[in-house]
Design brief:
Number of strands: 6
Number of helices: 15
Distance between the termini: 61 Å
Structural class: mainly alpha
Strand content: 5-15%
Number of domains: 2
Order of helices and strands: EEHHHHHEEHHHEEHHHHHHH
Radius of gyration: 28 Å
């Protein structure tokens, strides 16, 4: 039936066959009441959405199709044909990315009330992540009827109108940029957003998992053991209260804890505080706005690794647009390019494009060099030990992510880093 509220749900038990012929016997115990059916429907809907992670799963699938479209294994496929295939795949991917934020909001509205704290947190995450330049570029491709790629001789290049749009979103972008890399980073933004949203869903996932187990209708578990059945328990509705009971395994002590962050709540009365606070900031660039948002997120994240990630996002926005002296002149870059190409006469067009991109990045200064340049220009007072601390946290986070180490940052180091980056941002913002 089209109306879910009119569907009839039955409590069914699967038992071992009695006649030795049938594969299964089903006992229809009784029809479920409306509240019981609603509880099952909600649990099933949540688990299905999270199991599929539908919007992101579609994004990743389409990006794989885009990668396949860009692989010129067919020697007879011309650059014109290759650009058409890549445009078709890129547009399909961008269409899903363009709808990605609204799809996430629709799912969140189905699982939380729109005035709930959880929905508001999800809304904030969507706004923060999808406002980034890489995701905006990915989502904008669908608006170009001619497509983002064009054939230039025997190779495929970015269409001029697409590059102009990219430069408007991300000023200073290199002409050697690979759009495929930007699109990939946009998909990674979606992956990170899904991961952050799932943290908010954790209590619901636990409740939905318990509900699914209680509604399990078989008499035997997957390992063959008999399942004890209690009708009253099987129809229970699972939800989490505002406190949980904790029992120490060693001390055997028992106490109640709030399932929220362990950080002590702090408050400030903005109307009576003696501290000078500018309640209205001067006009900010998009990058400075995003840097402030990332810093703010770092103060709210309960996980120290997520805090470090947010802090370095703030740093990356802070140094975006910072230019440092060129290490290689244009003439030197041309000599390097010619020497490399002469050394690899059998390189494919795709390898040539990758080499061009790598050589084009020679004058792109490392992040730490850009950060030091920005700090010097804006006169930010900062000690070498403070820069070392920021870099140590970045390396620590990278080691954990790549499986090289499992040491978490010290809370006091993270708090100090928050103070350092707040200092950097305020020096820029308040000095105009």
């Amino acid at each position: 039936m089209s109306d879910d509220s009119q569907q009839r749900w039955w409590l069914v038990a699967q038992v071992q066959p009695l006649d030795g012929v049938s594969k299964v016997s089903l006992d229809f115990v009784r029809e479920l009441t409306v509240p019981e059916a609603d509880s099952i429907r909600q649990a099933n809907g949540l688990l299905n959405r999270l199991a599929a992670a539908a919007p992101y799963a579609k994004l990743f699938e389409l990006f794989q199709q885009f990668q396949k479209a860009g692989i010129s294994s067919d020697k007879k496929r011309s650059a014109q044909r290759l650009s058409i295939d890549m445009n078709r795949a890129a547009t399909a991917l961008s269409r899903v990315a363009n709808n990605f934020p609204s799809d996430l909001r629709k799912d969140a509205a189905a699982d939380f009330k729109e005035d709930s704290a959880e929905y508001q947190q999800i809304e904030l995450l969507i706004t923060e992540e999808c406002a980034g330049p890489t995701f905006r570029i990915l989502a904008s491709i669908v608006h170009f009827e001619e497509g983002p790629f064009q054939a230039v001789g025997d190779r495929v290049a970015i269409h001029p109108s697409m590059f102009a749009a990219m430069a408007e979103i991300l000023p200073g972008i290199s002409k050697q940029v690979l759009l495929a890399d930007v699109m990939y980073r946009g998909v990674i933004v979606a992956q990170r957003l899904i991961g952050r949203i799932l943290k908010i869903y954790e209590p619901k996932i636990q409740s939905a998992g318990l509900t699914a187990q209680l509604r399990y209708g078989l008499t035997h578990l997957p390992d063959g053991s008999i399942l004890q059945f209690d009708r009253r328990e099987s129809l229970a509705q699972i939800f989490r209260k505002d406190a949980v009971s904790v029992r120490g395994l060693t001390t055997l002590r028992q106490w109640l804890r709030s399932p929220r962050s362990a950080k002590m709540a702090r408050f400030v009365d903005l109307s009576t505080t003696s501290r000078r606070l500018d309640k209205s900031l001067p006009p900010l660039t998009l990058q400075d706005q995003l840097a402030l948002l990332a810093l703010s997120r770092a103060t709210r994240e309960p996980d120290p690794l997520a805090q470090v990630q947010a802090l370095w996002e703030a740093v990356e926005f802070y140094v975006s647009g910072v230019e440092v002296g060129r290490m290689f002149s244009k003439a030197e870059c041309r000599k390097i390019r010619k020497a490399v190409m002469d050394a690899l006469p059998s390189a494919t067009a795709e390898q040539h494009e990758r080499l061009d991109h790598a050589i084009g990045q020679l004058n792109n200064a490392p992040l730490l060099i850009k950060l030091k340049a920005a700090l010097d220009r804006e006169g930010v007072p900062i000690a070498d030990s403070e820069l070392d601390l920021l870099w140590k946290l970045r390396q620590l986070r990278n080691d954990v992510v790549h499986g090289r180490n499992s040491t978490l940052p010290e809370p006091e180091d993270v708090e100090y880093a928050v103070s350092i980056i707040a200092r950097m941002l305020l020096y820029r913002v308040l000095q105009g």
